[in-house]
Each structure stands twice: as C-alpha cells, then as structure tokens.
Design the sequence.
C-alpha cells in the first residue's frame, strides 16, 4: 500500500515508518522537523520505498499536491506537538499544529477523497493517533479508561489532542470521511526525545546530573513499548471507521518505580564509583495540573482485532536504557542547542 504518514520523523512515527517500509509499503513521510523530529529517518531511503517531504500538515497546497501525486491508500497522522511541559509554557504552538494543522489536513484530505472513484473511496482510511491523556486523570482503584470514558483533558496538550479528536469525529459524522482514532498510553523505547521521563532520567544519570522527579513520584503511567505499536496497523487494516480504539501496555508503574528501574539497570551495567544512581533522585516542584494516574482498558482492541502487547515493562526498560548507552552519536546529536535551552527553561531553579 501507499501511505501518507505525518510526523514520521518523530519517536513513534519513525518506528512505524521503518516497520511499514520493511513490510513493503511505500511511505510518503510528511514532517516539519521540529525540535523532536530527527533527520536520521528523513535521510534513510530504504530502497526508495521511503519518500521524505519536509513540510507542515497545515500547508494545504503541499498536502493537496502530495495527495494528487502519490494517491495514498491511507493517511496516518502522528504529527503533533507532544510534550505536556512545553504545552504549559506555550499552549498556542499546540493549537497551531494539533488543532488547526489536523483540521486543515482533514479538510484537504476530505476534498481529495470526495473526488475518488467509488472503490478507492470506500477503501481509503484516515487514522488519527491520539492519547489517553484526553480522558483526564484517574485515582488509585478507579477502573481503567475505556473507549466510552468521557473526555476531560487537563493540560493544554491534552486539550489540543481532545480538540483534534473531536474534529476527526466530526468529519466522520458530518461528511462520512472514513476516519478512525487510537488513544494510546505512554510509549517508551529507542529514539524518544530526551525531554520525556525515561530518556531524560537515563541521560541525566549517565552524566551524574540530578534526576528530577515531579512532586512525590507517586503519579502512575501505563507504559507501552513503541515496538508494540503494530497496534496502529491492526486498527488501520481491520478497525471500523468512526470508531476509537484504546491501546495500552498493561504496565502501570509509579514514576518513582520507573526511575528506580532505570537506576537498577545502570547500576548493573555501568556501576559508578560515585555510588548508586538512585542517590541522584531529586524531588522537584510538581507539574501544574499533573494528572495522577492513567490506565488503559484495551479489551476492545484485543477482543475485536486480536492485538496484545508483547513486551514486559522490565525487559523493555532494560533494552531501552541499553539503546541509549549504545547510541551515543544519536544522543549527542539531539542534545543540541534547543535541548540545552529546554533543560534551562524547565529545570533550572525548579
Ligand atoms: P514526537 O514529538 O517524538 O514526534 C512528533 C513529530 O511530528 C516530529 O517528527 C515533528 O517534527 C512532527 N511535527 C510536529 N509538528 C508538525 C507539523 N505541523 N507538521 C508536520 N510534522 C510535524 O511525538 P511522538 O511521541 O512520536 O508522538 C506521535 C503522536 O503520538 C502524537 O500525535 C502524540 O500525541 C501521540 N501519542 C504519543 C504518545 C507517547 O507516549 N509518546 C502516547 C500516545 C499518543
Ligand atoms: O499518556 C500518553 C502521553 O504520554 C502522550 O500523549 C504524550 O505525548 C507523552 O509525552 C506522555 O505524556 P506524560 O506527561 O505522561 O510523559 P512524560 O514522559 O513527560 O512524563 C511521565 C511522568 O513522569 C509524568 O507523570 C511526569 C513525570 N516526570 C516527567 C519529566 C519529564 C517527572 O517526574 N520528571 C520529569 O522530568
């Protein structure tokens, strides 16, 4: 198949692009290469089945051109501003890409799709990659989020993702545009930009810097290895249009458990003469509006589409930490000027 993938130079999108190229699909990868987009995937030609286009999902003329030239069978929309802490500092950037950008992409794709021949029109799909954060926060003991949990976003990031989900839904209901949504829990794995908890703590520990834990470290996330994201392909191929599908890892851990897990791996594989890494933990001012707990009930995906996560969190975490240890050039490249600015903005004096 030919897929227009947006945000395919980011953490999850690049993993998807690599998997689909390997499976024999042709990928048109439209990515703006923001601070979190990585040129490494952009320059991989993967035997010509990967066509990288540097651009914005909100650029109507460009998207129109790509649809006309490449005639994709589906669009998979990963492109987004994705970091909660950045959304607290600059909410508008999240409105621009996640809300306006997604709406322009939908409108442009719908106009093109409308003119397709009946068989191609029936077969076309638009998959929007969203998050469990749109459901808001759970307390301990609350049942996990299902597809019918009401939206209750608490951060500018989750508000922007919720808004984009509503537009996707509205395009299905209003125009019959064949869209689907996935709501996924926290991903981790290789190539995640080190503003997110797991790579940030790993790299800070290796540099013997403090490990910033927000609040008391008792917040809970449900972790899913990025290589379990074939879930996306399953939904694209077999999901019902107009439906949403939860994706989760069945791996709830407190942040402190995650941080100690990283320290344990490092203590085992590169012990420091200065003592255990966990001594670097520093409890810092909490994230404003910090959601206490996320947990995903992914029964719909497993019972209807037969998908199950395959990685255990402990093995996945160990492999991830080792990946960062073994990929020093990648790490040095991403720890560029912008990264240093962010570490200054978000952590100094916190
Ligand atoms: P990321 O920040 O690593 O990657 C985002 C990519 O989108 C980057 O390559 C960036 O350059 C690109 N991009 C940003 N704005 C763009 C624009 N206007 N036009 C084109 N490209 C643009 O994010 P990620 O963690 O890979 O997340 C991918 C998607 O999955 C996002 O939609 C996110 O909301 C969602 N999601 C992420 C997680 C997670 O744990 N990381 C969990 C659930 C859902
Ligand atoms: O749930 C899915 C979401 O997971 C995605 O939609 C987002 O794109 C993705 O960024 C992620 O959001 P989180 O806010 O949960 O991820 P983050 O890695 O930023 O933080 C994980 C937890 O760790 C959270 O409770 C905040 C805490 N934390 C984070 C950082 C960066 C710290 O304690 N210290 C930190 O320095």
Sequence:
């Amino acid at each position: 198949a030919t897929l227009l993938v947006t945000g395919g130079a980011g953490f999850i999108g690049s993993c998807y692009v690599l998997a689909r190229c390997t499976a024999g699909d042709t990928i048109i990868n439209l990515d703006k290469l923001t601070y979190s987009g990585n040129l490494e995937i952009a320059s991989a030609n993967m035997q010509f089945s990967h066509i990288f286009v540097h651009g914005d999902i909100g650029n109507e003329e460009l998207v129109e051109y790509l649809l006309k030239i490449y005639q994709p069978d589906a669009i998979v929309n990963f492109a987004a501003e994705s970091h909660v802490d950045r959304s607290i500092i600059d909410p508008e950037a999240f409105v621009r890409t996640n809300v306006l950008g997604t709406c322009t992409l939908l409108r442009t794709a719908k106009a093109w799709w409308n003119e397709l021949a009946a068989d191609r029109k029936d077969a076309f799909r638009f998959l929007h990659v969203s998050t469990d954060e749109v459901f808001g926060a759970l307390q301990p003991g609350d049942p996990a989020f299902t597809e019918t949990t009401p939206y209750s976003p608490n951060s500018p990031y989750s508000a922007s993702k919720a808004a984009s989900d509503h537009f996707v839904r509205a395009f299905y209901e209003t125009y019959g545009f064949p869209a689907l949504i996935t709501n996924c829990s926290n991903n981790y794995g290789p190539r995640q930009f080190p503003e997110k908890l797991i790579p940030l703590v790993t790299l800070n520990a290796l540099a013997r810097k403090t490990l910033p834990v927000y609040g008391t470290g008792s917040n809970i996330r449900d972790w899913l290895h990025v290589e379990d994201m074939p879930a996306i392909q399953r939904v694209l191929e077999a999901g019902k249009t107009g439906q949403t599908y939860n994706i989760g890892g069945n791996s709830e851990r407190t942040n402190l458990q995650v941080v100690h897990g990283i320290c344990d791996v490092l203590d085992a594989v590169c012990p420091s003469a200065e003592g255990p890494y966990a001594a670097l933990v520093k409890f810092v001012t909490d994230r404003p509006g910090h959601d206490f707990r996320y947990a995903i009930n992914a029964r719909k995906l497993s019972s209807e589409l037969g998908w199950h996560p395959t990685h255990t969190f402990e093995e996945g975490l160990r492999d991830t930490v080792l990946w960062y240890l073994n990929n020093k050039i990648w790490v040095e490249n991403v720890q560029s000027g912008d990264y240093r600015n962010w570490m200054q903005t978000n952590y100094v004096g916190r």
